[in-house]
Amino acid sequence: MNTYLYHCTKGIRLFLALSIISLAQSGWAYTSGDCVRCHAKGGSESKLQISVPDFKSSVHGDKISCQECHTGVVDVKHIKDPDLGTVDCSRCHEQKNLHGMGAGAAIRPQCYSCHTRHNILSSGNAASSVAPAGLQGTCGKCHPRECGNKDYLTWLPSLQISSHKKQDFARAYDRNNCLGCHQGRAAHGEEGQVDQQQCYRCHLSSKGSQGPLMGYIHPVADYAAQPAVFASALIYQMLLAALLIGGFRFYVGRFSRKNNDRKRR
């Protein structure tokens, strides 16, 4: 009996699989509801999951279907070939992804690296990953040192940035707003101003490299890239070591003299 049930169940599964393939080949297409049934967060059908409420509150929300972005997902073949779900944002967005053009394709950031995959919010929304208040966290994922995560070799040379006076009190300068300096060059390559900060006028050249002002905006103790900062960091270390050794010798000598004075008495 158990063998009979086993073969029946196996036959039903085979029939369903063939039916699905037949429907797919005959022109049947997925709907967003079909995608959600497999990919909704908390489900067990797929490891690739999305938060449906987050997506609905995003700029895309109910305006477009899953297939309008994931154009390659048309049938069950996408289960075995994940590349079919690749999204090309440039199909709808004129702004090209020019971030990290000098890097290899394998490590170059993609649109979702900054904007997230499904919870994409307007830059004017405070909760957006590209809102000015959140840029330090977003950019810091790839640029930790530039976003304030200094190591012990660079925190002293970086103090000069904090003391820099901006003079123009009519403008708000925020060191945590990465685009305040980098403007569109760090994202899509726009030449026009993207916010009210104009740090780039003094600190970056027309090619996006170091500008006319002396010194580094993001000091890194790297012998090859920034030898002056590397030398400064070494000097700071030697001074700190000399201070610690000198203090230790001073107190050891003082303690020894006290012991000798006590013995003589």
Keywords:
265 residues; mainly alpha; 0% strand
Q: Classify the helix fraction into a percent range.
A: 25-40%
The span between the termini is 105 Å
Question: What percent strand?
Answer: under 5%
Number of separate helices? 10
Low-pLDDT segments, ≥5 res: 23-27
Largest sheet: none
Mean pLDDT: 76
Concise description?
The chain is mostly helical and 265 residues long. Helix content is 38%, strand content 0%.
Note down, in words, how this protein is organized.
The protein is built from 10 helices and no strands. The model is unreliable at 23-27 (pLDDT under 50). The termini are far apart. Helices cover 38% and strands 0% of the residues. It is mostly helical and 265 residues long. The protein is elongated, with a radius of gyration of 30 Å.
List the helices and strands and how they pair.
Elements: H1 2-25, H2 32-39, H3 52-56, H4 66-69, H5 111-115, H6 135-140, H7 159-162, H8 179-182, H9 200-203, H10 227-264
